Amino acid sequence: MPAPLVELLWWEGCPSWMRTLEDLRAAVTEAGLDPKRIVVREIDDEEQAEAERFVGSPTILVDGQDIQPPGEDEPTGLTCRVYRLRDGRISPTPDPADLREALARAAAAARA
């Protein structure tokens, strides 16, 4: 089975995407995957945001699934995304534990 597709979707108006990319590269490496295979895609207009169901930057997809799926009524658009960490705090980047878990599941599935 091929390696999972790991994508980072970002918007230029959001400064936290670069930190998220660094965290993502580290987590991908930790999961035994190749960080050079991360697909980094800029979302640069509202039409593309709607087509991608982009609810803000940064968004991480593993095999097309958001690592922290937004609610059904979450609006799409060019905006900075807000994440809720496991301890309840708000963050501009995803919870590292959520990221590691999503990658570990995908890596295990790829090896199966």
Write up what this structure looks like.
The protein has 112 residues and is α+β, with helices and mostly antiparallel strands. Helix content is 33%, strand content 17%. It contains three helices and six strands. The strands form two sheets. The protein has a four-stranded mixed β-sheet, with helices on one face. A two-stranded antiparallel sheet has the order 5-6. The relative contact order is 0.26. The mean pLDDT is 92.
Q: How are the SSEs ordered, and which strands pair?
A:
Layout: E1 6-10, H1 17-30, E2 39-42, H2 46-52, E3 59-62, E4 65-66, E5 83-84, E6 90-91, H3 96-111
Parallel strand pairs: 1-2
Antiparallel strand pairs: 1-3, 3-4, 5-6
Provide the descriptors you would attach to this structure in a database record.
single chain, 112 residues, alpha+beta, 4-stranded mixed beta sheet, two-stranded antiparallel ribbon, 3 helices, 6 strands, globular
Total count of helical runs of at least 4 residues = 3
Radius of gyration: 13 Å
Strand content: 15-25%
Structural class: alpha+beta
What can be said about this structure in brief?
The chain has 112 residues and is α+β, with helices and mostly antiparallel strands. The protein has helices at residues 17-30, 46-52, 96-111; strands at residues 6-10, 39-42, 59-62, 65-66, 83-84, 90-91. The longest helix is centred in the last third of the chain and has 16 residues, at 96-111.
